[in-house]
Amino acid sequence: MFKHTGIVRRLDDLGRVVIPKEIRRKFRIQEGDPLEIGEGEDTILLRKYSVLELSDETTQKILGSFSEITQLPVLLCNTTHVLHGVRLHKNIRNMELTMELSDCLLDELTPCSGMKIVYENEITVDEIERIIINGNVEGALIIPASGIELTESDRNCLKLCAGALAAVVQ
């Protein structure tokens, strides 16, 4: 679906177009973010690219195995949206992450525990493990708060699964 913004930009001699700051902010596009270029009959489409969206059966098996072993819910997200969820009472797949959590994911030194995951409900982060590919944070595995005390084994299993996902999609 194409929404007219009234913004018109010229192509420079190298084929570059500047994306206005308000659009970059709305879609959380930062310098260095990969963009996928698509084409329609008479349109050119730019889409924020996430390698984690290419997840397949292997990704589902990793998430399912984690949840089966730990008996805990788990979410896979990129830096802006929830991509998959296992053992959740509410379906939050494809929902947008809160800006606070999205920013926290990109800052590896900031703890994200207790942050609200999506705007649409009150589910919060209990534990998080970032998925790092080629030195960049591409997403995270999140254990939502459920009132169950996490063990060190649960945390280690989450780290292992995040590493496995990074290796699979790399």
Radius of gyration: 18 Å
Question: Count of DSSP helices?
Answer: 4
* Portion of residues within helices: 25-40%
The major sheet is characterized as: 4 strands, antiparallel
Please trace the helix and strand order, writing H or E for each element: HEEHEEHEEH
The CATH top-level class label of the largest domain: Alpha Beta
Q: Please state the second-level CATH architecture of the largest domain.
A: 2-Layer Sandwich
Which class best fits the helix and strand makeup? Answer: alpha+beta
Could you tell me how far the N terminus lies from the C terminus, measured between alpha carbons in angstroms?
A: 31 Å
Global morphology: elongated
* Strand percentage: 15-25%
Oligomer: single chain
Can you identify the CATH superfamily of the largest domain? GAF domain
Mean pLDDT across every amino acid position: 89
Number of strands: 6
Spatial sequence of strands, sheet with the most strands:
4-3-6-5
pLDDT under 50 segments (min length 5)?
A: none
Task: Draw up the topology in text.
Layout: H1 21-26, E1 35-39, E2 44-48, H2 57-70, E3 74-78, E4 82-86, H3 99-106, E5 125-133, E6 136-144, H4 152-169
Antiparallel strand pairs: 1-2, 3-4, 3-6, 5-6
Domain SpoVT-AbrB: 6-51
Keywords: DNA-binding
InterPro entries: B_subtilis_Trans_State_Reg, SpoVT-AbrB_dom, SpoVT-AbrB_sf
Descriptive tags:
6 strands; SpoVT-AbrB_dom; 170 residues; elongated; four-stranded antiparallel beta sheet; Beta-Lactamase; two-stranded antiparallel sheet; alpha+beta; DNA-binding; 4 helices; 2 domains; Pemi-like Protein 1, Chain: D; B_subtilis_Trans_State_Reg; AbrB/MazE/SpoVT family DNA-binding domain-containing protein
